[in-house]
Specification:
Strand order of the largest sheet: 2-1-3-4-5-10
Bound molecules: NADP nicotinamide-adenine-dinucleotide phosphate
Distance between the termini: 35 Å
Number of strands: 12
Shape: globular
CATH class: Alpha Beta
CATH superfamily: NAD(P)-binding Rossmann-like Domain
CATH architecture: 3-Layer(aba) Sandwich
Order of helices and strands: EHEHEHEHEEHEEEHEEHEHH
Number of helices: 9
CATH topology: Rossmann fold
Radius of gyration: 19 Å
Strand content: 15-25%
């Protein structure tokens, strides 16, 4: 199958690229800005026709959660309109669209893990733009799988783990919020799940499903930071602080743990624990640094 990966220079796209050698029966087209802009409708459909694309994995997104509060138009153009463009392109060539969304479509007022059919109620522009992207896909109606994930990190790109490693070397102590609860997700594990699903998907079936995928387990950003410091052998002390003590332009959900029962059952996935993912990412990070030097 010919597979188009958009936003392929980002965290998730880079992880898919890193895994492509174990899926040699597929031909991957890894694309990103500036040569492939998901908001360019004519170009997206033409590309899919020209390369007989059988599946699109949309890793492209506007992911700057705080910046989105003021850069509203760009966030909606990429996260809502870009998703719609890819849905139309997928429909035009009868391709499966795998679209990645976020736990930030929820407001965090739940006290049990969110299921796919819980009502979305985003508390910021980023979450709202991602939710409207999901809705556009459902409305346009190609064969689609929407995968919501949370707290993504990777050895590629910038993320919380890398920030903690850097600050852990620079500072003696650090305050990290302990009243936002969720699950970190190693982008390598999500990429692997996506490839597994693609492998087992049936090109004749019209899919119209939303799934939750994160690593297993639950923690606060404080717990996560502490785990990074310990595993990364940083002596920096981590202090628990409240969200109110660390104001950010975008409001974030206090609780955004995702219930993954549906994806586990439908696709028979084994999902690693977040701490296991963290250790593998740190090992990979060393590898990536050695390769680059
Ligand atoms: N990061 C998280 O914590 C997190 C959590 C939950 C869900 N998600 C979702 O997971 C998915 C993957 O996230 P990620 O962390 O891998 O994102 P990322 O690292 O920010 O990568 C996104 C990629 O998309 C590119 N892009 C932006 N606008 C584009 C456009 N108009 N056309 C084509 N490409 C464009 C970006 O290029 P530039 O860098 O040049 O802008 C970047 O290379 C996204 O859908 C995101 O919403 C992420």
């Amino acid at each position: 199958m010919n597979i188009l990966v958009t936003g392929s220079k980002g965290q998730l796209g880079s992880e898919l690229r890193a895994l492509q050698d174990s899926h040699t029966s597929h031909r991957f087209y890894f694309t990103d800005l500036p040569e492939f802009d998901i908001t360019d409708a004519d170009a997206a459909t033409a590309f899919c026709r020209e390369h007989a694309i059988g599946a699109i994995v949309n890793c492209a997104a506007y992911t700057a959660v705080d910046k989105a509060e003021t850069d509203v138009n760009t966030a909606f153009r990429v996260n809502r309109d870009g998703a719609a463009v890819l849905a139309l392109a997928a429909k035009a060539v009868s391709a499966l669209l795998i679209h990645v969304s976020t736990d930030y479509v929820f407001d965090g007022s739940n006290c049990r893990p969110y299921r796919e059919d819980d009502p979305a109620m985003p508390c910021g522009v980023y979450g709202q733009s991602k939710w409207e992207g999901e809705e556009a896909i459902r409305r346009i109606g190609p064969s689609y799988l929407i995968l919501r994930t949370s707290w993504l990190y990777s050895s590629y790109g910038q993320n919380f783990v890398k920030t903690m490693l850097r600050l852990g070397s620079e500072r003696e102590s650090l305050g990290v919020v302990f009243d936002q609860i969720g699950t970190p997700t190693y982008a390598r594990d999500l990429a692997s799940a996506i490839l597994d699903i693609l492998e087992r998907s049936d090109p004749q079936t019209m899919y119209a499903e939303t799934y939750h995928y994160s690593n297993e387990g639950v923690c606060s950003w404080y717990d996560f930071a502490l785990a990074v410091m310990i595993a990364g052998e940083r002596s920096c002390r981590v202090n628990p602080i409240e969200t109110a003590d660390y104001p950010t332009p975008a409001k974030r959900p206090h609780f955004s743990v995702l219930n993954k029962r549906k994806i586990r059952q439908d696709w028979n996935l084994e999902i690693p624990h977040w701490h296991d993912g963290l250790l593998r990412m740190l090992a990979e990070q060393e590898l990536v640094k050695r390769d680059a030097s």
